[in-house]
Amino acid sequence: MEQRTVGVLGAGQLGRMFVEAASRLNVQVRLLDVGDTAPAKQINYAPNAEGSGSEHVDGSFVDPQKIRQLASKVDILTIEIEHVNAQQLQQVLDEKLVDAVHPLPSTIALIQDKYAQKVHLSERGLPLADYIAVGPEEVTASSDAAVTSKAQERSVAEAGSAFGYPLMLKSRTQAYDGKGNFVVKSPEQAAEAVAALGGGKRGLYAEKWAPFEREIAVMVVRSATGEVRAYPAVETVHRDSICHTVHAPLRVPDAGVERRAREIAQQAVATFGGAGVFGVEMFQMPGGQLLINEIAPRPHNSGHYTIEATETSQYENHLRAILGMPLGSTALKVPSAAMINILGLADSDKDAEAVAKTLAPAAVSLDVPGATCHLYGKAGCRKGRKMGHITIVGQSDAQVRERLAIVDRALDEATELAKTGAKLPKRLTLAGVSDEAAAVASSSKAGGAAGAAKTKSAADFSHPQPLVGIIMGSDSDLPVMLPAAEILKKFNVPFELTIVSAHRTPDRMRTYARSAPARGLRAIIAGAGGAAHLPGMVAAQTALPVIGVPVKGSVLDGVDSLHSIVQMPRGIPVASVAINNSTNAALLAIRILGAADPSYLEKMQAYMDEMEDEVNGKIQRLGEQGWDYVVKK
Hints:
Elements: E1 5-9, H1 13-24, E2 28-33, H2 39-42, E3 57-58, H3 64-71, E4 76-79, H4 86-94, E5 100-102, H5 105-112, H6 114-123, E6 131-134, H7 145-163, E7 167-171, E8 181-184, H8 190-196, E9 204-208, E10 214-222, E11 228-230, E12 234-239, E13 242-248, H9 255-269, E14 276-284, E15 290-296, H10 306-309, H11 314-323, E16 336-343, H12 354-358, H13 360-365, E17 371-375, E18 386-394, H14 397-420, H15 430-442, H16 446-450, E19 468-472, H17 478-490, E20 495-499, H18 506-519, E21 523-529, H19 534-539, E22 546-551, H20 559-566, E23 575-576, H21 582-594, H22 598-625, H23 627-632
Parallel strand pairs: 1-2, 1-4, 2-3, 4-5, 19-20, 19-21, 21-22, 22-23
Antiparallel strand pairs: 6-9, 7-8, 7-9, 10-11, 10-12, 10-14, 12-13, 13-16, 14-15, 16-18, 17-18
Helix pairs in contact: 1-11, 4-5, 7-8, 17-21, 21-22
């Protein structure tokens, strides 16, 4: 289908996943990196014509001669890491040794210098934290490091006067995964900070401290003709300045945050030349303001989830973009997803079990539904080295979080074992996980145990990732609404239960209704008595299905509430159940969930079968005991 060959500078884990995507489209890929066992080279067989060697290039992706050697073998060049020789790529392009380089070498060079990147984005009106150059704007190999260092120290003090403390001091180049950053907490730390970031041998800049609420990332694919498409915004959670987990889609009360994040990311990527996937990292500030942190001109760690969770992965879309193919859909194909990184927990030369401990979460994940393990084929282990990742998908945020927690617990335990030097228990090894899975599969008790009801606790009524919201105007309605909670608990549906008054807390009601979809809710059960405005007013503020429960009052026996709920005007639908029957409201909500998640339909059918069996049992007893049975009951 595609006759052109793609050359990639870099053959690490990103290149490996790019090669996987290319292989499905029969696209030939040639790689430039050191060694024959780099992660991407391991899975990309490319013998030369003589059969005596490989078409891949062994060498550094900053070596001009090696880049030219790769260019001689391919039609299009791209990158899996931005720390390449952009000047040589431009020369290769100018000499027409290849048809194209994506993204453009000028884009790569611009993004390599994070200060220049800030200036570029700022000049185009994109939101950033305040920043300032530190010391000389140009630091070269011939610059006097001692002179530069002193100038940078003075500039740090000036930045502190302008921005206050703490402030973030950053290296302009070679900064990633938390490297190249220094938190300056006082003027006295200026010299220490400059020394830690190159001692005058690298250009620096300072940023005003951004006390963000969460970190957000958006992957954007850009075609050679300038079309841009954004993937869903996701939340990234970092440990030690390295991405630990990613949660998709972004769940925040204000639905506008996700939309604005995608818009800002698309606007930013549209300012760069060339095609491919870009990773845009942002801070969400108090009040919902978004600030761009930095941009990567390549597939990104925060986009790994797209392999299992979206209609077209970031790697396939990168390939499509640089080859001029139609861009693929960036939409989620599952309701919820997460990704967790696997980083080296110890050095192989110091701990014989370093690899086994590091891969313990991977072993455990093999028995977690919805989990897909990606290992990168790296030999040995170093602490902090990226060794793999695990993607987890599911029908709800709650389900994904529960599955993720299993893997995360294994990681935490393995981390502690690596710190103490203790031996890895068998249950955290592949053999142990396999034995346990086999034992569960053969146990006749396994099915019953899985569906056992949990002990009642306050958490049952305020799940952090609810699918159903149960609301009422007053705690006096609680006795009527509790049966709905018990039914949802019986079906293992995550829910929240709270008070929202249409009359006494109208602002809270509006916020609750409008934020519900963005928070992951899929149905709302609203109990109301008397005037019973709550179900209708909530339905007027949200696109989610709303089920009203008429609450019996002291005057009109709930008929007034029922009439109020069922008399909604055209265009504002509200379902209603019988007076005081929140049980049916919960059952209807579960059926609504079942339209997208067959597991709830299966549970509903089992529930209906139980009711039928119960009635058949009564019929049998009535036939055996006669009318006397009814009297006794």
